[in-house]
Design brief:
The protein has about 400 residues and is α+β, with helices and mostly antiparallel strands. It is built from 13 helices and 15 strands. It folds into 4 domains: about 1-75, Phosphatidylinositol 3-kinase Catalytic Subunit, Chain A, domain 1 (Ubiquitin-like (UB roll)), CATH 3.10.20; about 130-190, no CATH class; about 195-335, Acid Proteases (Cathepsin D, subunit A, domain 1, Beta Barrel), CATH 2.40.70; about 370-410, Helicase, Ruva Protein, domain 3 (Orthogonal Bundle), CATH 1.10.8. It holds the Pfam family UBA.
């Protein structure tokens, strides 16, 4: 049916609408035609204002009828949208209800600013006010930048400070363009990278193991070691302090225990940390020992040169409480620099470990022959510095295996 609408300035419009159309949708059509926002419209038929939720047929509008559109002069509606100088709403509850009642505005917010839309639909008034303040600050910052750019257009070309600002603006524009290009062509770069976890069993107890080739040693927390029944094997002669991103106490070392990967069992050594936010980190020492390969193409960890393959876990399979282990990867990578209580930092770098050898370990210095140099070279290829390798070989009278175990144990 056709409906004639007369505006306050005597503009006459004829619209083709459905009898079951809502008054709110009619206002939306009029907003397009007249540029008058929907919430500022009042539609009257036969001297009575029509409500947004009502249908045209239910209020008696028929083909050819005349509808009056008047500007809204509701003082309460104007007070609802008043804001404080910092951008927050003067009456946040009324503002929230007002926006909720405007379905078109809510649809726009859900599309353009979902965070603000969720705050309006939620029950946390403080969160809503904070977001409104944040949006106000963003608008003010954008306005300031626009004013600065406009000022630079009319700046003295011989003004050194102005030229520096122009140079900075050009550089920032290049950065922004690079960011926009990355969003378009490489959006995954902005996503959170899921770290590598696999299912393992340590002494028969199933765990989610964090696989980290950047961590020098395999580490286990005290609580996890206790749960796996391994704390009774803790050798406290290897106590120390691991210094990396933060600091954690090394409680000792468990020299060997069985781990199950897939259907195979492998011997594993652990450094035990007093770290309540982690469980088990499978480090480079055991990755090397068991000839593991991190296959990102097939998304599997291959063990024993490929005899066993276990898939890396998807993000949904990784419990949220163990994701803090990722923060310990740098700490674990620094276990080669674990220090005793008496060590001192030199120029901001922790000393190399100065530990007393286990009881019964030989202390005689081996001969400095070609065989000794070959052992030094072989151990140095594993990533240890020459001085530490020489010290370890002397400590264990040239026994290459014992020296390697000592170096990996940090």
């Amino acid at each position: 049916m056709k409906v004639t609408v007369m505006t306050a300035d005597e503009q006459i419009l004829t619209l083709d609408v459905d009898p079951d159309e809502s008054v709110e949708n009619l206002k939306a059509l009029l907003e397009v035609e007249t540029r008058v926002p929907l919430r500022q419209q009042q539609l009257h038929f036969n001297g009575k204002e029509m409500q947004n939720s009502e249908k045209l047929s239910s209020v008696g509008v028929q083909d050819g009828d005349l509808v009056m559109m008047l500007p809204s002069n509701d003082r309460a509606s104007q007070d609802v949208v008043k804001v404080n100088p910092d951008g927050s709403a003067a009456n946040p509850q009324a503002f929230q209800q007002h926006v909720r009642g405007d379905s078109q505005l809510m649809a726009q917010l859900l599309q353009n600013d979902p965070q603000l839309a969720q705050a309006i639909l939620g029950d946390d008034i403080n969160e809503l006010q904070n977001i409104l303040r944040s949006r106000h600050q963003q608008r003010m910052e954008l306005k300031r930048k626009q004013e600065e750019e406009l000022a630079l257009l009319y700046a003295d070309p011989f003004d050194v400070e102005a030229q520096k600002k122009i140079e900075a603006a050009i550089r920032q524009k290049g950065i922004d363009e690079n960011w926009e290009a990355a969003l378009e062509h490489n959006p995954e770069a902005f996503a959170r990278v899921v770290m590598l976890y696999v299912d393992m069993e340590v002494n028969g107890v199933p765990l989610k193991a964090f696989v980290d080739s950047g961590a020098q040693s395999t580490i286990i927390s005290k609580s996890c070691a206790e749960r796996c029944g391994l704390l009774r094997l803790l050798d406290q002669r290897y106590r120390g302090v691991a210094v990396g991103v933060g600091q954690s106490e090394i409680l000792g070392r468990i020299h060997v225990a069985p781990i199950k990967i897939g259907q195979q069992f492998y011997p594993c050594s652990f450094t035990v940390l007093d770290a309540p936010n982690m469980e088990f980190l499978f480090g480079l020492d055991m990755l090397r020992k068991h000839q593991c390969m991190i296959d990102l193409k097939d998304n599997v960890l291959r063990v024993g040169g490929g005899e066993v393959s276990v898939p890396f876990l998807q993000e949904k399979d990784i419990p949220a409480h163990i994701r803090d282990e990722e923060k310990l990867s740098k700490l674990a990578s620094s276990l080669g620099q674990a220090t005793g209580e008496s060590s001192k930092a030199r120029e901001g770098t922790p000393d190399l470990p100065q530990r007393t050898p286990p009881a019964g370990a030989p202390v005689a210095n081996p001969p400095q022959g070609g065989d000794f140099e070959a052992k030094v070279t072989k151990l140095a290829e594993l990533g240890f510095d020459r001085a530490s390798v020489v010290q370890a070989l002397k400590l264990f009278n040239g026994n290459e295996e014992q020296a390697a175990a000592f170096l990996f144990g940090g």
